[in-house]
Amino acid sequence: MYRIYKFNRLEQFVEFLGFVPHKEIPKYINACDIGTVLLFPTPRFIKTPYPIKLFEYMICSKPVIASDLPSMGKIVKEAGCGVLVDPTDVDEIADGITYLLNHPEEAKKMGENGRIAVEEKYSWERMEERLLKIYKDIIS
Q1: Dihedral class, residue 61 (left if φ above 0, else alpha if ψ from -120 to 50, else beta)
Q2: In a 10 Å sphere around its CB, with 0-12 CB exposed, 13-18 middle and 19+ buried, how is residue 101 labelled?
Q3: Residue 49: helix, strand or coil by DSSP?
Q4: String of b and e for 50-67 (b: at least 16 CB within 10 Å)?
Q5: Report field, pTM of the whole predicted structure over 0.90
Q6: What are phi and psi of 88, to 5 degrees?
Q7: C-alpha to C-alpha distances, 26 to 29, 57, 64, 90, 103, nearest whole angstrom
Q8: Angle in degrees, 0-180, between the axes of helices 70-79 and 104-117, rounded to the nearest 10
Q9: I need a labelling partner for 26 at 20 to 30 A (CA). Which of 32, 112, 115, 127 fits?
Q10: Which residues pair with 85 in a beta bridge?
Q11: What CA–CA distances, in Å, run from 58 to 4, 66, 72, 118, 119?
């Protein structure tokens, strides 16, 4: 990641923080312009990656650069909340970041799309409704 950072002259846009307590995460998310959810295509992540980090960025109205993996890719595409990249291709990742930084209006719209998607489809309340419906269907 550091090589991408230096090669593409992203020093003014990126700060490496290290460990941050979970309670403080929203403060940092709200201070950034873009969220990254770059999971390598391992069997674990190809199967069902639904990282909380993705939804945290979305609810904070941040556009995402995300791995183009089946489950996560479907969420990002349907919501129109970011750019999908091959997580093994550093140039593609850099291009995605550069694209969003150079297109702030589109990035803002993607962020808003993500927030709306979480509110309407992926919030805990919505997931609870879906789960209760599944339980009722099983019992019936």
Answers
A1: left
A2: middle
A3: coil
A4: eeebbbbbbbbbbbbbbb
A5: no
A6: -95, 0
A7: 5, 9, 15, 27, 24
A8: 110
A9: 127
A10: 67
A11: 24, 12, 12, 7, 9
Distance, CA of 122 to CA of 99 (rounded, Å): 26
Cα–Cα distance measured from residue 63 to residue 36, given in angstroms and rounded to the nearest whole number: 9
pLDDT of residue 41: 86
pLDDT digits (tens, 9 = 90+) for 69-111: 999 999 999 999 999 999 999 999 999 999 999 999 999 999 9
Greatest pairwise CA separation for the chain in angstroms: 59
Query: How would you list the strands of the sheet with 64-67, edge to edge?
Result: 35-37, 64-67, 82-85
